[in-house]
Amino acid sequence: MSSFEWNKIIASLLTALIVAMVSGILAGQLVRPRELAKPVFVVQSAEQTAAAPAEQGAAAALEPIGPLLAKADPKRGEQLAKVCQTCHTFTKGGPNKIGPNLWDVTEEQIASVPGYQFSAALEKDKNEKWDQEKLNQWLYNPQSFAKGTKMTFAGFPKAQDRADVIAYLDTLK
Asked: Is the pTM for the entire model greater than 0.90?
């Protein structure tokens, strides 16, 4: 093939690329998406998650969980915890998934599940134990409890829901 033929092939490729680029620019000028006034779909407690970083004392503002635990229902907590089964297991000796196995997590050291790599946000609390108040804060909003944690769950906004889940976790021993 002569160099003239190669020049025609390269020129046609360059022309096609230029036409595609110009078409993209023109399409971007003709069709401009409008910003929505409000979100079409709001994830439960998304406003709470967005507002939590602005409030430094969000965890301190929670009501104590102790009185609610007196009337907590572990069976209801088990039902609520089903959303957690995507990332966690709840069985004795169960495997770690995206998140650690939660069997016997109450009164356990924070970030101490064997074979699981915790985020640095939880590693700093490694010498503390999960008590009912810490679990309450964690279940309310994991990001406000440990800023930078890899857990993306928005949390349980209702205090009684958190109490029921904590009562369920207390039964896993």
From this structure: no
